[in-house]
């Protein structure tokens, strides 16, 4: 068995892990949450409106204060929607599941990186968290 085939088998094992299954279920729940999807759509529309206000070359100098007021109002709406999106049960569950899957993938990457740097793959220690020193790091998260 070559290394690419073994990597593909690792990919299958990752997809069979509890972390991946929880993530996939949370992602599907997000996709099926109509209120969450509506809020995300509205969030994107408001972002586009803000971008349009900021880039519209037809804004006259005397309209600048009205434009600032409109942008501020849109920013308030944007922040409110963002808070609703991030507080929704579906999104909270998704973020927890994503963090757990990311942790698993980071541990796998750390083992591979340490191994490539000459350490024993069976005994190398995976550091938890970031110490701030790249010289002691086994891979970015």
List its salient traits.
5 helices; 141 residues; mainly alpha
Mean pLDDT: 88
Number of helices: 5
Q: Looking at the structure, what is the overall shape?
A: elongated
Q: What is the number of independent domains?
A: 2
Secondary-structure content class: mainly alpha
Helicity range of the residues?
Answer: over 70%
The major pleated sheet works out as: none
Which segments are poorly predicted (pLDDT under 50) over 5 or more consecutive residues?
none
Quick one: how many beta strands?
0
Secondary-structure element string: HHHHH
Radius of gyration: 23 Å
Strand content: under 5%
N-end to C-end Cα span: 30 Å
Describe the structure.
By secondary structure, the protein is mostly helical. The chain has 2 domains: 1-31 and 90-141, no CATH class; 34-87. It is built from 5 helices and no strands. It has helices at 3-16, 18-32, 34-55, 64-87, 89-116. Helix 2 packs antiparallel against helix 5 and helix 3 (34-55) packs antiparallel against helix 4 (64-87). The radius of gyration is 23 Å and the shape is elongated. The two termini are 30 Å apart. The model has no long low-confidence stretch (mean pLDDT 88).
């Amino acid at each position: 068995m070559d290394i690419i085939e073994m990597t593909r088998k690792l990919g299958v094992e990752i997809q069979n892990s509890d972390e991946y299954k929880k993530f996939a279920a949370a992602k599907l729940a997000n996709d099926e949450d109509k209120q969450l999807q509506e809020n995300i759509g509205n969030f994107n529309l408001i972002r586009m409106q803000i971008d349009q206000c900021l880039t519209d070359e037809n804004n006259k100098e005397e309209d600048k204060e009205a434009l600032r007021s409109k942008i501020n109002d849109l920013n308030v709406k944007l922040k409110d929607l963002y808070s609703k999106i991030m507080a929704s049960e579906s999104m909270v569950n998704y973020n927890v599941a994503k963090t757990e899957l990311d942790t698993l993938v980071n541990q796998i990457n750390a083992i591979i990186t340490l191994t490539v740097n000459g350490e024993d793959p069976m005994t190398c220690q995976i550091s938890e968290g970031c110490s701030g020193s790249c010289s002691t790091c086994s891979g970015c998260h």
